[in-house]
């Protein structure tokens, strides 16, 4: 049988890599009346059966039920009555990690509990399939708030983290076992040495994480808050003996925008052993690991992706 010259198909003998993804405790605001509805009727219903009524929706989905809850996604599409309500919509994400990704969802509405099918996706969620479980959370004036749980599989490729370092000592506890994908901020306490280090990061699933303090606080401190499109491209510093232990004496960071530091004992920087690392083009320092005896930062290394 002849095929079109622009069509090509070939056998694939390899395995298909799947990534599992989940969202829990999302809250869909289904507001159909009142001053601020998020759906509108396009076609009225047949008088006897109700068949044919169709509406367009721009439903909002939040990460919590409080007034300060984050807008996670919008469900934009259609629903129509064909003996029961049928939904078909695009779930467009508003959170940074999935800003350019969508899920294609369809299925029948149920009053209290039920599921919709995930029949596709784009961006990081390309070729997604799975289910969206829904459960009535509460009724409000003019609508419902419905709790959603999303569970699916897609072709998302999670970044492979490469390590450089650590520099300094290995006394105390190992720290930095997270799976970061972007640094949001860095906080350093210092005096004669780097007394403590912590950073806030976005993990590979789009969640915000905090490492807590590696060490102990001291009078001097600095906080580096990175811009939305700012990445860390290099780190340097010095290691010195302190109470017969190798510890981090100074730290300095280079980003795509500027240089921060050095922080620490910069008056005696010549007395330390220097170290530095710069990431290759197209990569970034996305996180840190190291050692701390809870008194200071003994050693530090970087994750690159």
UniProtKB/TrEMBL annotation:
Alphabetical list of InterPro entries matching this protein: Dirigent (IPR004265), Jacalin-like_lectin_dom (IPR001229), Jacalin-like_lectin_dom_sf (IPR036404)
Cellular component, GO annotation: apoplast
PANTHER family according to UniProt: OS05G0143600 PROTEIN
Domain of life of the source: Eukaryota
Keyword Metal-binding: no
Transmembrane segments: none
This protein's record includes keyword Secreted: yes
Subcellular localization(s) per the UniProt record: Secreted, Extracellular space, Apoplast
Gene3D superfamilies assigned: Jacalin-like lectin domain (2.100.10.30)
Name this protein carries in UniProt: Dirigent protein
UniProt function note: Dirigent proteins impart stereoselectivity on the phenoxy radical-coupling reaction, yielding optically active lignans from two molecules of coniferyl alcohol in the biosynthesis of lignans, flavonolignans, and alkaloids and thus plays a central role in plant secondary metabolism.
Family per record: Belongs to the plant dirigent protein family.
All residue ranges annotated as the Jacalin-type lectin domain in the record: 161-305
One GO molecular-function entry: carbohydrate binding
Keywords, alphabetical: Apoplast, Lectin, Secreted
Family matches, as SUPFAM superfamilies: Mannose-binding lectins
Subunit structure: Homodimer.
């Amino acid at each position: 049988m002849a095929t079109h010259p622009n069509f090509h198909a070939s056998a694939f003998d390899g395995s298909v890599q799947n990534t599992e993804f989940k969202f829990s405790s999302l809250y869909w605001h289904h507001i159909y009346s009142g001053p601020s509805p998020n759906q509108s009727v396009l076609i009225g219903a047949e008088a006897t059966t109700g068949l044919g009524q169709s509406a367009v929706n721009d439903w909002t989905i939040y990460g919590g039920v409080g007034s300060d809850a984050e807008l996670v996604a919008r469900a934009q599409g259609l629903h129509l009555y064909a003996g029961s309500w049928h939904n078909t919509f695009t779930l467009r994400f508003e959170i940074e990690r999935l800003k350019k990704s969508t899920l294609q969802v369809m299925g029948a509405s149920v009053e209290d509990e039920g599921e919709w099918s995930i029949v596709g996706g784009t961006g990081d969620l390309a070729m997604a399939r799975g289910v969206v479980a829904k459960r009535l959370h509460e009724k409000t004036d003019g609508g419902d708030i419905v709790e959603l749980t999303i569970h699916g599989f897609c072709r998302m490729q999670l970044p492979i983290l490469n390590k450089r370092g650590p520099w300094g000592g290995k006394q105390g506890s190992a720290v930095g076992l997270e799976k970061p994908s972007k640094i949001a901020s860095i906080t350093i306490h210092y005096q004669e040495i780097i007394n403590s280090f912590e950073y806030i990061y976005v993990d590979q699933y789009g969640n915000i994480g905090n490492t807590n303090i590696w060490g102990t606080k001291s009078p001097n401190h600095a906080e580096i808050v990175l811009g939305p499109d700012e990445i860390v491209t290099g780190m340097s510093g010095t290691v010195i003996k302190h109470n017969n232990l190798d510890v981090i004496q100074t730290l300095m960071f280079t980003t795509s925008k500027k240089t921060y530091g050095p922080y620490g004992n910069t008056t005696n920087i010549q007395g330390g052993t220097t170290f530095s690392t710069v990431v290759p083009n197209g990569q970034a320092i996305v996180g840190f690991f190291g050692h701390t005896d809870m008194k200071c930062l003994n050693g530090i290394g970087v994750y690159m992706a």
